[in-house]
Specification:
Blueprint (H helix, E strand, L loop, with lengths): L3 E6 L4 H10 L5 E7 L8 H4 L22 E4 L6 H7 L7 E4 L14 E2 L2 H9 L3 E3 L3 H15 L6 E7 L14 H4 L4 E2 L8 H11 L7 E7 L6 E8 L4 H12 L5 E4 L14 E8 L2 E8 L7 H11 L16
Parallel strand pairs: 1-2, 1-3, 3-4, 4-6, 5-6, 7-9, 11-12
Antiparallel strand pairs: 7-10, 8-9, 10-13, 12-13
Helix pairs in contact: 1-9, 4-9, 5-7
Subcellular location: Cytoplasm
Catalytic activity: N-acetyl-L-glutamate 5-semialdehyde + phosphate + NADP(+) = N-acetyl-L-glutamyl 5-phosphate + NADPH + H(+)
EC number: 1.2.1.38
């Protein structure tokens, strides 16, 4: 098979850096260009120092549409929509957007919501993918099997994310001296990922009309998400585990385990690790992912693999960081 020509738009941020790190070693992908308006002309490794020895390429200012079978949009939220609207009609390649611009039904504009564990068939038949948010990915993977069986009730979620989830630009709540040895709650019951989570739950369980109560937290670690999710459920623990294992048996990156999940199980991988336990009438699900990989760039490459008819795991068998 001829290599897939890749263009990356907005190449200076964390998600773009992870995307480049995956794609330079992907056996069936070739990076044609990496665009960045702010870093044009500079060596890619001057921004992404971890790529030294892996890639020799400079950022470019302009997009060469003729050299891209697929474009990854790694720009800030709100910028992808205007970029897509300005694209030439002659471009016939595929688009994978990592922002939140096209995730909701009202904004989709032909984009398919790219959660493979829910929408793989739709992804296979699409040219435009809205990559899910990081919190949304971890939380939905905790809930999909229940929603598919119509078993959702009011949902309660506490989830903690690493500092890279806020992006590369420093802010009052991301710089080291504030984040280190600290923890905080933010956007309680109002996080932007609630919209996409709710739409997926209704997609699978159309009658679902209960609250999804989500309290996000900032952790004092750089990458990873742990979501603790619980709700009322009449299933026994044994039946619940069987339900989850059956749902995910054809999805190579989601692993159902009896072990208590922790973030280090998944950092630097595209895996999601899910544990299901029963406490009286409550079912408790713990889900962990790497926010930059399964929550962003790794899932984007997973979607690329599906779009081009490749094995989902192609180029994504990354090793976890144990210590």
């Amino acid at each position: 098979m001829q290599k897939i020509k890749v263009g990356i738009i907005g190449g200076a941020g964390y998600t773009a850096g992870e995307l480049i790190r995956i794609l330079v070693h992907h056996p069936q992908a070739e990076i044609s260009f990496i665009q960045s308006a702010s870093q044009a002309g500079l060596d890619v490794c001057s921004i992404h120092a971890d790529l030294i020895g892996d890639i020799e390429m400079n950022f470019v200012a302009d997009v060469d549409y003729d050299k891209a079978d697929v474009l990854f949009l790694c720009m800030g939220h709100g910028r992808s929509k205007s970029f897509v609207e300005a694209m030439p009609e002659t471009y016939k390649g595929k688009i994978i957007d990592l922002s939140n611009d096209f995730r909701l039904n009202k904004d989709a504009d032909g984009f398919v919501y790219g959660l493979p564990e829910c929408n793989k068939a739709q992804i296979e038949n699409s040219d435009k993918i809205a990559n899910p948010g990081c919190f949304a990915t971890a939380i939905q993977l905790a809930l999909l099997p229940l929603a598919a069986e119509g078993l959702l009730d009011e949902v309660h979620i506490h989830a903690v994310t690493g500092s890279t989830g806020a992006g590369q630009a420093p802010s009052a709540t991301t710089h080291f001296s504030w984040r280190n040895n600290n923890a905080s709650v933010y956007k309680s019951f109002s996080h932007q990922h609630l919209g996409e989570i709710g739409e997926t739950m209704v997609q699978l369980q159309p009658a679902f009309d209960k609250e999804i109560n989500f309290v996000p937290m900032r952790g004092n670690f750089p990458r990873g998400i742990l979501a603790s999710v619980y709700l009322d459920c009449n299933l026994s623990e044994e039946d619940a585990k069987e339900l989850y294992k059956k749902y995910y048996e054809s999805h190579p990156f989601t692993i159902v385990t009896d072990k208590s999940p922790d973030v280090k199980m998944v950092v630097n991988t595209n895996k999601a690790v899910v544990q299901v336990k029963k406490h009286n009438n409550k079912i408790h699900i713990v889900s962990v992912i790497d926010n930059l990989l399964k929550g962003a760039s790794g899932q984007a490459v997973q979607n690329m693999n599906i779009l081009f008819g490749l094995d989902e795991v192609k180029g994504l068998l990354l090793k976890p960081v144990a210590f």
